[in-house]
Amino acid sequence: MEDQMNDYILTLENITKEYPGVTALNDVTISFEKGKIHALVGENGAGKSTLIKLLTGAIDKTSGKIFYKGEELKNNSPIKSLDRKIIPVYQELNMIPTLSVYDNIFYGHEMTKGIALDKKYMREKTSELLKQVGLKVSPKTKARELGVGNQQLVEIAKALIKDVDVLILDEPTTSLTDIETENLFGIIRNLKKRGISIIYISHRLDEVLQLSDTITVLRDGEVVDTRPSYAFDEEHLIKSMVGRNLSRSTRNKEKTVKNEKVLELRNVSTDQVKNISFHLLKGEILGIAGLMGSGRTELAEAIFGRDKITSGEIFVNGELKKINSPKDAVDEHMAFITEDRKTLGLMLDLSVLENVTYASLKKVTTNGTIDKDEEKQVVEEILERLNVKYASLDEKVLNLSGGNQQKVVIAKWLLTNASILIFDEPTQGIDVGSKEEIYGILRKLAKEGKSIILVSSENEEIMNITDRVLVMSNGEIASEYKSEALTADTLFKDSARLL
Q1: How confident is the model at residue 496 (pLDDT cuts 50, 70, 90)?
Q2: Could you give the CA distance from residue 471 to residue 469 in angstroms, rounded to a whole number?
Q3: What tens digit of pLDDT does each residue of 197-219 get?
Q4: Which CATH superfamily groups domain 258-495?
Q5: Strand, helix or coil for residue 6
Q6: Would the CATH topology of 2-95+146-242 be identical to that of 258-495?
Q7: Who is most buried in 40, 148, 366, 397, counting CB within 10 A?
Q8: CA angle 180–152–168, rounded 5-degree value
Q9: Does the reported pTM lie above 0.70?
Q10: What single-letter DSSP state applies at residue 398?
Q11: Which CATH class is domain 2-95+146-242?
């Protein structure tokens, strides 16, 4: 066994992790080769996050052994893991909003010159790292000024500054477009050439097949398949993950659009977007596509009153409206399902029930008192409608899978009787089965007469789910297409048209 382990940098041998009433990992054995890219895939709740927490020392195993460079790891901890050059980059970002990019990258290991901070060196090194990850921002930029996708690239740059043997990437391309993803793949391949081992976790199966050397499939806390990536295809991967054949989304053939404008923007500008004009029809799913930084999210935030409009007009159901705040938007029956659901969309430490009703407590309140029975009834009904899986209404939403968390956000806004719903990256970080459920929900809402704006960096999602697509570039609308006339090549070309 020892000779065999010398071929690997990390080996998990018969690992089990139990919590009260739950077995998160059951008799898991996986070996990670030196200088290879090993992907972990599985639905939310399959055990991927638990496995990574064990490797990084955040939690301890119930039984089994972990070997690193041939030696058994005992009494592991996050600090010891970092000392061993096992560096994780988590899907949940760890940026300090008020600090600059270079301060975030060097936080905890600042460089000094004498007794003073060597800010010049740290800024120059940060510029070098940002160039490696393809991020064109100043090292002095405050983290709060960056979108989620750019923050993800800074997190990867932060990992690269350390001397790393094993780099763990948890959903690194969640907020990246295809072009930015290809750039990141180049970085990862270069790290592999340097002998660094990559553990790669992603719900995007096409990129897993393209990038990895080996793939391990987890389901219900167990390893169900491990083999070289060339021995898999996407359908085989999906079946291994979910334990059944899954029908994939095809172009939306069921048209629910009515020739009735529910929203119209005329020459709307903010500090981030310029001269935006378009309309949204009743029952329509309108896609907003473009590269990261193109203004997609900024446009959505302007519509919802989260970004100040400097010029232009917004009409709702034919009437001119002043949308100066999210409250104004909600009063006009709009909803915003944010890309950053864990920070902005949910209150993770509160219950499922509290998260669903806090935006619409008036519906279950009489004379200033919440009717608990009615509150429970309406929440159970909306959760059943969306097929949300939860243990009880009192369960913290933190404990739900990513897909079910997203459904809770949708449930919250549906209870407000919103008729215009803005979805910003609605399938970000959720598994393939949950994605199909979210797509089904979008189509059902459109069929019911709701109007939807779908902001997405996934080409397949944009082309298959929407009725019409606006392509953005450099804060402007570069082009508009009926979805059936759109191709990935066209999307790429138009996204870069105004750069």
Answers
A1: low
A2: 6
A3: 999 998 788 889 999 999 999 98
A4: P-loop containing nucleotide triphosphate hydrolases (3.40.50.300)
A5: coil
A6: yes
A7: 40
A8: 100
A9: no
A10: G
A11: alpha beta
